[in-house]
Amino acid sequence: MFFFRDHLDLDLGASRVEIAFTDASVDLQGGDDKPGFAADLGRVVDEAGVPFARLSQVHGADVVEVVETPPRGPAEVPSADGLVTVRPGIGLMVRAADCVPVLLADSATGLIGAAHAGRAGTALGVVPRTVERLRALGARDLHAWIGPHVCGRCYEVPAAMREEVAALVPQTFSETRAGTPALDLGAGVHAQLTQDGVTVATVPACTLEETSLHSYRRDGAAAGRMAGLVWRR
Prior knowledge:
Blueprint: E1 2-9, E2 16-22, H1 37-48, E3 52-53, E4 63-65, E5 82-85, E6 91-96, E7 100-106, E8 112-117, H2 119-124, H3 126-136, E9 142-146, H4 159-168, E10 173-175, E11 181-183, H5 185-195, E12 199-202, H6 216-219, E13 226-231
Parallel strand pairs: 3-6, 4-5, 9-12
Antiparallel strand pairs: 1-2, 2-13, 5-8, 6-13, 7-8, 7-9, 10-11
């Protein structure tokens, strides 16, 4: 179920933050009305041991703070692309099928965050805004994990779109292996994080190339959604 799993030890005794990205053995696309969603979400919750707050992702830059324990059953889901929380016992989830899932944790305080950065969200700065929100809550030593996403050699886009995004985040400028215009959203997000003084780890996997992961570019409307998960028990 987990393609990648890691943890961050905290300066809070024996406490630690858990990090994970799911694979294609679970599909977290859609919501409570989608057949199979509740079962796959339940598998994730049971494995992690915490309930997960999630979003209706809209390719924007809004960030919400989670202050209450999310219910395990059907729930009203806010529209945003970033999540933060100060509370242990709550997991945060973002979903992707080529976009960049970013997980954040602060080793000094245990604060956690998550962001979904597609083309629009990267240009709008959803990841820097999530970092800013965490620091406003007291984060002092932030670490980030950039999850699997479509790579800069596979994400072909029109030339005008590449110019538009690269004008805002220059590190996204890329070319495919065939020499056509492309965007490297992972490189752009990495640059945004390092510019903000965040320690960054990248999971080296392209969703389009790695068949054990969901990819909209590869599978179209049939593609499911993987999840980036961060939690502290």
